[in-house]
Amino acid sequence: MTTKIADLARAVLAGRPIDRDDALYLIQLPPEKRYELFYWANEIRLQYCGPDISLCAIASARTAACPEDCKFCAQSAHYQTVVKPHTATNEELLAAAELAQKLGAHSFGIVASGRAPMDHGIDRLEPVFRHIAQADRTLCCASLGCLTLEQAQRLHALGVRRYNHNLETSRRFFPQIVSTHSYDDRLATIKNAQQAGLQTCCGGIIGLGESLQDRIDLALTLRELNVDTIPLNFLNRITGTPLMDLPPETPMSLLHTLAVFRFVLQNKPINIAGGREARLRDLQSWIFFAGASGTMIGNYLTTAGRSPKEDFQMLADLELPIVRGCGETSS
Description:
This protein has a single domain (3-323), classed as TIM Barrel (Alpha-Beta Barrel). The protein contains twelve helices and twelve strands. It is α/β, with parallel strands linked by helices. Strand 4, helix 6 (149-157) and strand 5 (162-164) form a beta-alpha-beta unit.
């Protein structure tokens, strides 16, 4: 084995975080070194997160007609895509939550398009949040855009316990992807959620055209923010968006990035979310060997995932136990 990879891994296993230069070394490793990198990423995952795999699910309360211009997003009103505006009823959201609970998802999130929630929008969703929280079978989560401290405190009072708000990429590259709000807007939301006592679910998208250095800077920012869970998405190119013709990355290069995130974010849950099926294809099961400790099941916001049955079979074949509900583990 390569001495430097092993030395860096042993440092992480001993509780010593790697620095930016070390992370850049790892992400620039040649392809033939990836299997060794994966080996150590898996060892780090097992030590800090254990063998159990957590599953999350989401449902969209409001889809499309978003005023923001995120270049990857099919919901932006700036682009012509096949996604049509839709507002789900509370009954539809509660049915989705019930399905997630039956499947054994550890967390269930209500997601809404738009820059930020209006107070009347939170009013509408209040009974949904309260019902999920009171059932206490999945962690109640939300992803509603930029939050004020007062809104974050209100969500906590309603029973929401985790808030998702991704940084998407590095500060340097962010203006190339979004112009209608700033990186500081996103950072402020994360800090407001933390101040209100919410767990934070914050990650990004890999494959937006960013450099390897941008990926490392994103990972280091997430570590500095001390977020609770890191969702990693792989760009799923949607027809009509500005990134639709961006050349796709290979599955192995995406897994390489995931493994380096595990080195940097040693003890944090890393969940693989959007783009898993489209970008990893037959290598989806490798996410756990490369350092992921969880994944999303069911459909995404504007694209379909594969059936939960297939994901459960994958985990059974890997002999990986699943964290059921809010903490129960089953094999």
